């Protein structure tokens, strides 16, 4: 049984209260699934698709709307590995620890990534870009050891190769963050120009 | 338009190896240079060790190119398509000359995988062109009765490919015998065995064959609704299944009065799993489809009597269904011709681990493990010593090299203490530690136990603790006996197959590799040099040149020595990371 997640609960709550969540985003999903039998798992999957994780407030909202019991919902959320009660990074790195990857030294991949990203298994980096996870078999065993980032799979890894892939993503992320910054500055400059021009025209 | 076809393998494994980029490049060159060839997509042909694969079929024959990247793609187009001279050194399989991987294909008989790698899985026309939906049409046109369909499947000897090996025809008969207006047919596509990907390849490569198998099954048992329960980790399979379902509805293979068979109504939908191994067990799967925690339920009643929403339900595995249309078209005898007395037909294996040619192979039941490893798989990577194969995943066991003449059929494999399982075959060599493998599987089952039965929940944890201790060099006399005792209790005290089989990896490794356990416990040594805490690193003074590379790279500053002087490892500081061993160019570090 995966008991760890329940123990981590208090930490989760702290994080959640900081964020404001627009629960109205759930309405179309609830409407679409409200009449289907056995709708709980698709509802939760849909919720996670919207927010990236399952905010406890969303559980409460769905429970109020559909009359599903909170206890049942919490039971299901903690049963399945897919559901996350904590916000996750922009990219989820899933390192395979299936049998084929294990015998090809998948531990080294995880160890090197942990050192590089300075996180524990299951945790998110401080910059919020990466969440590191281990999973059992991604179904690409002949390319072992394997990891998946988002929907992209990377095979025949070594610790160094894995770190290089992650480094490259981080570099691009930082770059686009910088670009956004510059873009913003440019647009403010443009705005000032426009304002100035307007003033001139008004004069 | 010329008759030249260029086909790119775009299964998950191909995509992971970079096939998407190769496809884009081929498309680009074709447009840029206005070349005349048809560019097609297909899925995994099973030769995963040579991905990305590109096949060119022209008037002179077919040529499969392996390990194609963008550069090679340019070269192949230039030489093969423009100048009509195939680039022999990249070809891995061809019908015009003998390729080095001839054995890989010759040992195989493709029934379940008959279309994988040959059709575009997103095209129903491609499937129809290769006898697709012929079986259900045959049933409709020849008005074959339900009883006769069941009889054909029974006579073929087809047994469930999901692990249990229960005769499929018999299962259908039971579900057919139950009377109810509503019945369900379910496809188990949860594929939880870590180290197996047969079902993924079939779903990605030939989704219609699974649908057709389900449609025939639904006809046989009288089902009105179908569910495919697919792992969430297989997004591509889900996508292709949904495309296939839409096409099948449009063409009338799903819907009302299917193909004119009066009263035969059926629709099928995909339900995505949410990541729990135990949901592969049929009663847990049903609970999960109903939106609950995936806890197994007591049997009887069996699903054939009371399953999904308490209605009669038939559950089969992906590969089981994929075989069915072939059996209906070719007849029971054509299938039963392959295999052994009690295990008929073929079986798909995912061949992985320390094997030269890893991939997907379909072989007749009854070939030996040795033949699969050496004839098809080309032997062990780096020509190391073959130690064992793991069959059946967390429910199975390790079969040692000296038993590798064991035939793969349900009964012979079970006799070794392993199980046939769903088809994951992980090959292990002398560098794999068998105690660590047992620990690995127990770690898996301990996490995946749903917690309902005490012995499964806590017993696996206790076993894991003991195994972890042993691999850390803290094993005690009596540990092996304690493991054996716990194993029996867990088997007896568990409701479902997960707990009942969880001790198998430990029991088989104790049975065949007891000396490795003893070396860990008594001598605090790991013969495979795998368990970190039991290793010792030392400098071989005759070989050391004093180059200082190891000293500079040691993360715990455990190495001392001056330039051009023999170095020395301080054992009390060594964290056994192995960095010195991998960095040393002079073979001057030994590990034991
Ligand atoms: C813990 C556990 C996990 C299982 N996982 C799978 C699975 O991933 N896929 C599968 O087809 N069968 C799995 N099974 C077997 C199913 O319970 C069931 O026997 C099978 O789906 C029946 O189909 P078949 O007769 O075609 O093999 C599992 C069984 C157990 C006990
Ligand atoms: S074991 Fe890693 S992909 Fe299957």
What does this structure look like?
The complex is a heterodimer of chains A (203) and B (592). Chain A is α+β, with helices and mostly antiparallel strands. Chain A folds into 2 domains: 12-79, no CATH class; 91-177, Glutaredoxin (3-Layer(aba) Sandwich). In chain A, 57% of the residues lie in helices and 9% in strands. Chain A has 9 helices and 4 strands. A 4-stranded mixed beta sheet of chain A has the order 2-1-3-4, with helices on one face. In chain A, α8 (106-117) packs parallel to α9 (159-202). The longest helix of chain A has 44 residues, at 159-202. Residues 4-17 and 185-203 of chain A have low confidence and may be disordered. With 592 residues, chain B is an alpha/beta fold. Chain B folds into 5 domains: 5-100, Glutaredoxin; 124-335, NADH-ubiquinone oxidoreductase 51kDa subunit (Rossmann fold), CATH 3.40.50; 346-429, Ubiquitin-like (UB roll) (Roll), CATH 3.10.20; 434-523, de novo design (two linked rop proteins), CATH 1.20.1440; 536-591, Alpha-Beta Plaits (2-Layer Sandwich). Helices cover 39% and strands 15% of the residues of chain B. In chain B, the strands form 5 sheets. In chain B, strands 2-1-3-4-5 form a 5-stranded mixed beta sheet, with helices on one face. In chain B, α11 (235-250) links the parallel β7 and β8. The longest helix of chain B is centred in the C-terminal third of the chain and has 19 residues, at 504-522. The relative contact order of chain B is 0.09. The model of chain B has no long low-confidence stretch (mean pLDDT 94). At the A-B interface, α4, α6, α7 and β4 of A face α1, β10, β14 and α17 of B. FE2/S2 (inorganic) cluster binds next to α7 of chain A.
Report the major sheet of chain A. Answer: 4 strands, mixed
Cα shape of chain B:
globular
Largest interface: A-B, 42 and 59 residues
Main structural class of chain A: alpha+beta
Bound molecules: flavin mononucleotide, FE2/S2 (inorganic) cluster
CATH class bucket of the largest domain in chain B: Alpha Beta
What is the CATH-assigned architecture of the largest domain in chain A? 3-Layer(aba) Sandwich
Name the strands of the widest sheet of chain A in spatial order. Answer: 2-1-3-4
Mean of pLDDT of chain B: 94
Total number of domains of chain B: 5
Instruction: State the end-to-end distance of chain B.
Output: 65 Å
Indicate the percent of residues in helices of chain B.
Answer: 25-40%
Q: Report the sheet-strand fraction of chain B.
A: 5-15%
By CATH, the architecture of the largest domain in chain B is named 3-Layer(aba) Sandwich
Q: Which regions of chain A are unreliable across 5 or more consecutive residues at pLDDT < 50?
A: 4-17, 185-203
């Amino acid at each position: 049984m995966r008991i760890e997640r329940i123990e981590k609960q208090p930490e989760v709550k702290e994080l959640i209260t900081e964020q404001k969540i627009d629960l109205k985003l759930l309405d179309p999903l609830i409407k679409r699934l409200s009449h289907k039998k056995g709708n709980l798992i698709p509802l939760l999957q849909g919720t996670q698709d919207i927010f990236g994780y399952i905010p406890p407030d969303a559980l409460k909202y769905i429970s109020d709307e559909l009359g599903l019991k909170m206890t049942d919902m919490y039971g299901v959320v903690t049963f399945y590995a897919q559901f996350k009660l904590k916000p996750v990074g922009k990219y989820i790195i899933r390192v395979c620890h299936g049998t084929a990857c294990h015998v090809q030294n998948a531990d080294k991949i995880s160890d090197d990534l942990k050192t590089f990203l300075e996180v524990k298994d299951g945790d998110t980096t401080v910059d919020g870009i990466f969440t590191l996870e281990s999973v059992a078999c991604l179904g690409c065993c002949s390319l072992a050891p394997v990891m998946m980032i988002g929907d992209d799979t990377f095979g025949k890894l070594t610790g160094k190769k894995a770190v290089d892939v992650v480094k490259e993503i981080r570099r691009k992320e930082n770059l686009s963050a910088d670009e956004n910054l510059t873009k913003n500055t440019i647009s403010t400059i443009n705005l000032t120009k426009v304002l100035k021009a307007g003033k001139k025209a008004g004069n | 338009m010329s008759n030249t076809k260029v086909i790119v393998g775009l299964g998950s494994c191909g995509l992971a190896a970079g096939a998407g980029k190769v496809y884009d490049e081929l498309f680009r060159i074709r447009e840029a240079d206005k070349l005349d060839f048809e560019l097609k997509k297909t899925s995994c042909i099973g030769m995963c060790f040579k991905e990305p694969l590109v096949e060119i079929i022209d008037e002179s024959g077919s040529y499969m190119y392996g390990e194609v990247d963008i550069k090679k793609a340019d070269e192949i187009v230039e030489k093969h398509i423009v100048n009509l001279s195939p680039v022999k050194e990249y070809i891995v399989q061809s019908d015009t000359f003998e390729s080095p991987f001839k054995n890989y294909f010759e040992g195989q008989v493709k029934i379940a995988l008959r279309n994988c790698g040959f059709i575009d899985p997103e095209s129903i026309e491609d499937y129809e062109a290769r006898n697709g939906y012929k079986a259900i049409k045959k049933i409709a046109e020849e008005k074959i009765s339900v009883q006769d369909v069941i009889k054909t499947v029974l006579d073929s000897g087809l047994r469930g490919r999901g692990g249990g090996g229960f005769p499929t025809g018999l299962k259908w008969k039971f579900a057919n015998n139950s009377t109810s207006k509503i019945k369900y047919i379910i496809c188990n596509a949860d594929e939880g065995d870590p180290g197996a990907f047969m079902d993924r390849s079939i779903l990605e490569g030939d989704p219609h064959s699974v649908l057709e198998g389900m449609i025939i099954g639904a006809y046989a048992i009288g089902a009105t609704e179908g569910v495919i329960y697919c792992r969430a980790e297989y997004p591509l399979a889900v996508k292709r299944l949904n495309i296939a379902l839409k096409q099948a509805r449009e063409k009338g293979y799903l819907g009302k009065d299917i193909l004119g068979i009066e009263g035969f109504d059926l629709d099928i939908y995909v339900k995505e799993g949410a990541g729990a191994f135990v949901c592969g067990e049929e009663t847990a799967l049903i609970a999960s489809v109903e939106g609950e925690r995936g806890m197994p339920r007591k049997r009887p009643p069996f699903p054939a009597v009371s399953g999904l929403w308490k209605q009669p339900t038939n559950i089969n595995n992906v590969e089981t269904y994929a075989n069915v249309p072939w059996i209906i078209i070719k007849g029971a005898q054509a299938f039963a011709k392959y295999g052994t007395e009690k295990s008929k037909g073929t079986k798909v294996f995912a061949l992985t681990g320390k094997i030269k040619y890893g991939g997907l192979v379909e072989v007749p039941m009854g070939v030996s493990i040795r033949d699969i490893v050496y004839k098809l798989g080309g032997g062990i990577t780096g020509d190391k010593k073959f130690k064992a194969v793991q069959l059946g995943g967390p429910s199975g066991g390790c079969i040692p090299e000296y038993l590798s003449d064991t035939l793969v059929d349900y009964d012979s494999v079970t006799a070794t203490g392993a199980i046939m399982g769903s088809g994951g075959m992980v090959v292990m060599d002398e560098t794999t530690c068998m105690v660590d493998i047992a620990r690995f599987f127990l770690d898996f089952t301990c996490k995946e136990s749903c917690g309902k039965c005490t012995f499964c929940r806590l017993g696996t944890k206790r076993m894991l603790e003991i195994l972890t201790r042993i691999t850390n060099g803290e094993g005690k006399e009596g540990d092996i006996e304690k493991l054996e005792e716990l194993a029996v209790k867990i088997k007896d005290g568990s409701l479902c197959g997960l707990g009942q089989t969880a001790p198998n990896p430990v029991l088989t490794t104790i049975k065949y590799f007891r000396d490795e356990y003893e070396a860990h416990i008594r001598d605090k040594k790991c013969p495979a040099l795998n368990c970190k805490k039991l290793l010792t690193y030392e400098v071989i003074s005759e070989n050391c040149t004093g180059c200082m590379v190891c000293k500079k790279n040691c993360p715990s500053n455990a190495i001392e020595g001056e330039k051009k002087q023999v170095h020395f490892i301080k054992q009390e500081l060594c964290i056994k990371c192995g960095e010195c061993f991998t960095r040393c160019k002079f073979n001057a570090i030994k590990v034991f």
